Amino acid sequence: MTIVVRGGHCLPLSGGVDVRGGCQVGSDIYSWASGLKGEQRTARRFRRLRGHGWFTLHAVQWATGTDIDHLAIGPAGVFAINSKRHPGKTLWYGDRAVTVNGAPTRHIAASQSEARRVSRTLSTPCGF
Length: 128
Fold this sequence. Notes:
2 helices; disordered N terminus
């Protein structure tokens, strides 16, 4: 499987380095492709929810160009899920913080902000 990205570079998702030089470890394209790989894995796991009253959407685009990685809609409500992938890193997570290799992240704050945005967007049209 390949993905065509800006600049005409083909980026192999399973490789790590594009032989044509479009994807070096540490580059923005590499980071994006690694994140996409994690999002695809998460989407596959969500398939198990289908027979249990859940509907899932993936890469839901906002008008601003940003997206919601996954939106799960089911009997317990609507959930915005933000996928992250940190291969080879040491992760620590608690109720209010996530660190990667000991460094703090904005993962929880970003996820909370995304959830509030989804809530605002859906509440008025749904009459809540």
